[in-house]
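The instructor's notes for this session suggest beginning with a concrete chain rather than abstract definitions. Hand out the sequence below and ask the class to guess, before any prediction is shown, which regions might be ordered.
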Amino acid sequence: MTTEISVFIKQELIEFMDRVYLPFAQFKKTYKEFTKRNDWIRLAYRGLGSFYDVKNGIRYINRDNCQLFAIGDNEPTLMLPGEAARMVLLHYYPRGFTQSRKYNETRISAPHLFNGKQKLDSAIYIDIKSCYCQMYKKLWLDTQYPSLSGSMPLRQIAQFFDNYSNETEQSKFAKRARNAVTGLLYSSRIMFYNGNSHFIKRVYGSLFNPLVWYCINYMLHELANEAIRHGAIYIATDGYIFPSMSHWQLFSDLLDTLGLEFRCITGKCRIVRFGGYTIRGYAIRDNEHSKTTNLYRKWLEESIVLYSDDVRNPREKMLPETIRKRRRDWNKPLNNIVKLDNIDTITKWSKL
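After discussion, reveal the predicted structure:
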């Protein structure tokens, strides 16, 4: 680790750094220029709304994602949604809450179920709206699984952003900030990159509590087990696909009982890989009548190369075998859903 990075990490709070706001196109160009250099930059482990020039102490920010924001007596400042979420959390809980780092025994990822490619003439798609936000509103900053209790309710954080959205008509920014809360509580990694190499550094802030994230995932696994029991054939975190000849209505009734808002579409469906599907028809709940993922669109684009008879570019002649190999991997069944026979918290958190 270089000296300048060591100093950078020790500073920890970097609000005093010079901030340079750039339109997205210029921000992206600047980022690409930095990646070609040998100078160290710091990136968020997820997403790319900004990056830090470690050597010169400058933070470059995507202006298009920013909004003037303030809470309490603070002056309005241009900031990213994640910064706004952090500011609100620290406003309500200035002392923060640092959870124990010994949380491996509770670690669990989001539920995934994929049984291979399928084509359905009639299917039902159910998607829980702003899933992590709806669920963290039922929890506390100091949640300890499986007690699901605490003294620092997260509901008021979500409520603040809902009110902010209504008062300022900045619904897009408010929604992003509201949804960034769980990521902030879970985040403990920052990445440094210099064009040739990178390394990840763990940094635990005062708001660190991954148990909120894991507790929500436990809830989602409980819902996944219920969805499978009612006939679900595909699950990706908070999205479920059912054949029309299933008991999907019972699952939607359960979501209503738990007070979870969701959208529901029925129509022709095609699943080509995990994360790659399309369904078109009409809306049963909400006003959306179709859903097509970006991975499905990419699958269609690659199909043109794979099955086209007019391939002249030598590079394109190499692509089909690469695509076929990748598709063989994509078509492998996937099921990480945990059987929670001895852990029934739905009856607990449905009352929260």
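Then share the key points. Residues 4 and 10 are 10 Å apart (CA to CA). Residues 298-330 form one domain.
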